[in-house]
Amino acid sequence: MAENLATEVREREAKKAKAEHLLDVRNLSTHFFTPDGVVHAVDDVSFTLGYGETLGLVGESGCGKTVTALSISRLVPDPPGKIVSGQIFFEDQDIVKLPGDAMRRLRGKDIGFIFQDPVTSLNPTLTIGFQIAESIRQHMNLPSRAAKDRVVELLSKVGIPRPKDRYGDYPHQFSGGMRQRVMIAIALSCDPKLLLADEPTTALDVTIQAQILELIQRLSDEFKTAVLLITHDLGIAAGMCDRINVMYAGRIIETGSVDQIFENPRMPYTWGLLDSLPRLDDRRGNKLRTIEGLPPLLINVPDTCRFNPRCNYTRDQCREKEPSLTSREEGHEARCWATQPDGWIP
Questions:
Q1: Sheet of 93-94: strands edge to edge?
Q2: Strand pairing partners for 34?
Q3: In Å, how far from its chain's centre is CA 31?
Q4: DSSP assigned state of 230
Q5: Secondary structure class of 44 (helix, strand, coil)
Q6: pLDDT tens across 141-173, in order?
Q7: Residue 224: which of 53, 100, 65 has the closest Cα?
């Protein structure tokens, strides 16, 4: 057992030395083919994620965040969805080209996924102990007794009291926060290198949200796991992430460090997201600002700035051609005509 663990550690270190990034997404496009037309849910998206790094993926509902994560884990329902182009390098292999059996060996072991809604993700007819142990039995080849001990250890780590007694309980016997902890235990059961967390605190009260986020951060530090955190809450991203990608209408429209995004945003959409947050220094009685309008339909998207119908700074150039993602400073890029060096906003 110890020899196998030592061998796995050596293999991980060798792969880490060979690969510059743990995850390297290049020009990823995922479309859904519907009777009304082709939905460009993720359209030419590129980003990297380093070992042990936490990257935030933020934006309004429907902008492509969850489909990006499903594409990385190869869980896009087919039909109607399909990865139509691009590459997803996980260490030194393009997982888009992996056959189904190889991807199943990778998913769960090296890539963990915390789904948004534990109620629909957990099987109500199976005990939580069985559901956590399933991945352990498949990927770690542990005997039943050792697998159960591992499950009890995980339940304790995620803060579930009396883990031995709760091993045989069913999902309906847990509260919403406890079910989310079970989902985290499943995702971390095989010590994955990458954790995809899809809005893990949705529908939880503020106190439980803080506990879940602190738990993810602590376990990420303990297991040295990289995290792709999907959220619409910029406050959560500010407290959890090293870098942030802002998505809109299937595209990444701004990317940078947390300090760059919050202190010097260079895209009007990002300004709108930040302006919609409540501030402690606001005067009493001030109303929260909103972004007027709705995101565009992602069927037959025009080759112009996708945010221009809702933007207060739009000009003729914005209606003629879509800007590319260009550098504003080192490590900071934005997709906007207005904030480019020859634009009209300083």
A1: 37-49, 23-34, 81-90, 93-94
A2: 37
A3: 18
A4: E
A5: strand
A6: 788 888 888 999 888 888 888 989 999 999 999
A7: 53
| Token pair listed for 5 | 């663990």
* Percent composition of the chain: helix, strand, coil (DSSP 3-state, to 5): 40, 25, 40
Exposure of 223 in the CB half-sphere (CA atoms within 13 A): 25
The string of pLDDT tens digits covering residues 70-96 is 999 999 998 899 999 999 999 889 999
CA distance linking residue 123 with residue 134, whole number of Å = 12
Distance from C-alpha of 230 to C-alpha of 246, rounded to nearest angstrom: 10
Answer yes or no: are the C-beta atoms of 140 and 194 closer than 8 Å. no
Q: Which two tokens stand for residue 267?
A: 């895209």
Cβ proximity of 248 and 307 under 8 Å: yes
Residue with tokens 């997201």: 273
Instruction: State the DSSP code for 250.
Output: T
| 261-286 per-position pLDDT tens digit | 999 899 999 988 888 877 777 777 77
Percent of the chain with pLDDT over 70: 91
Percent pLDDT > 90 in the chain is: 36
Q: Note the Cα 275 to chain centre separation in Å.
A: 23
Paired tokens of 138: 């498949």
Please state the φ and ψ torsions of residue 16, each to the nearest 5 degrees: -65, -40
Q: What is the pLDDT of residues 8-35, one digit of tens each?
A: 544 555 444 445 789 999 999 999 999 9
C-beta atoms surrounding 203 within 10 Å: 14
Give the Cα separation of 194 and 23 in Å (integer): 8
How far apart (Å, rounded) are the C-alpha atoms in residues 120 and 273? 29
What pLDDT is stored for residue 335 in this prediction?
92
Q: Check: CB of residue 57 under 8 Å from CB of residue 68.
A: yes
Alpha helices in the chain (DSSP H): 2-18, 65-72, 100-106, 118-121, 128-140, 144-157, 163-166, 176-187, 206-223, 234-240, 258-263, 268-275, 316-320
